[in-house]
């Protein structure tokens, strides 16, 4: 029941004032206005736990979200942080028909607590707070058409499932999901009014490429619930990785290939070059990867490819060195002669025979061996860089186009 008596009292006192004003002819009284008392607005039998149904239709709660900041998109914890303004707009037809014509009142927090409110929550929130500096960043307004507008500034840490197979060329879709806790779609329907991501947001590693909104329904045994999903598409900027990973590792691989132009005899130089390159790449790989991800990412493919190339140059040198070693053995006049009837794995037997039967060289002489070693180096010096280029194009083709 609406407090009609009170209203009558208010109106009649207004009338009295008006009469007084007429009689006294004073202008000062016009400035006294009777503010609509918020208590008058609530009927006595108001149930603040019942959603305001209109003709049995669910209450429509329009929702607006404005993203003020976006930050800390973290693939390790799979979360991101944001500050949003969340507004809900809904009609409350159960309010009394007080003269609403001129009101656009900001409701007292205490009065707002007396009203029915949509009990929305963020489904994928990790943590969140309503900002409280300098006052609690939350207000509500009552509009003249019995519409209530609620607005709050909320800081949220939200989960975002990231698939990082293409890292660092990945595009992430991070969602914000809003649902009602207890009202099914027969009582409350959440609808999108607007979602807005400020164009001034600058993320250190990402660009916001687009946003979209979705209205969906979740079915549970005891009812269906509407769900609002706002999706932000984030594209990672690769500048950081080009400068800190791709270019250095590319140069290290090229550096290791310089070894093909060094003489085969200078073992310390060539081994040192390959081993330093290998160590550099292995440390860099550990640094560039995301430790908590256990599947293979694009960056891992790249780094492992580079490591494989450097390792191959080391193996190539081992091979070159081996041909030279055989050469040295031959200079001492020894040769291997394996008895065809015996297993070649009989090492002792072999050693015995080689020491026992010094023979004249059958295998080409020193100069020929050096020529062979040089030829291997020349071929490698074309083969390796070409293979590396093909690898780079393959990598780019797979992950960028
Ligand atoms: C109340 O506020 C709304 C929204 O700000 C505005 O459109 C409307 O004109 C205002 N009404 C009055 C009576 O001031
Ligand atoms: C109520 O009034 C506000 C502001 O004047 C307006 O934005 C809103 O759409 C109105 N709602 C309805 C249900 O008429
Ligand atoms: C939920 O929605 C589905 C279809 O969208 C419908 O078949 C089902 O009856 C609904 N459940 C309830 C409890 O309303």
UniProtKB/TrEMBL annotation:
It is a multi-pass membrane protein. Residues 245-332 form the Neurotransmitter-gated ion-channel transmembrane domain. Residues 1-25 form the signal peptide. The chain crosses the membrane at residues 241-262, 301-324, 382-400. The keyword Transmembrane applies. It holds the Pfam family Neur_chan_memb. Residues 42-237 form the Neurotransmitter-gated ion-channel ligand-binding domain. It is found in: Cell membrane; Membrane. Belongs to the ligand-gated ion channel (TC 1.A.9) family. This is Glycine receptor subunit alphaZ1-like. It comes from Limulus polyphemus (Atlantic horseshoe crab).
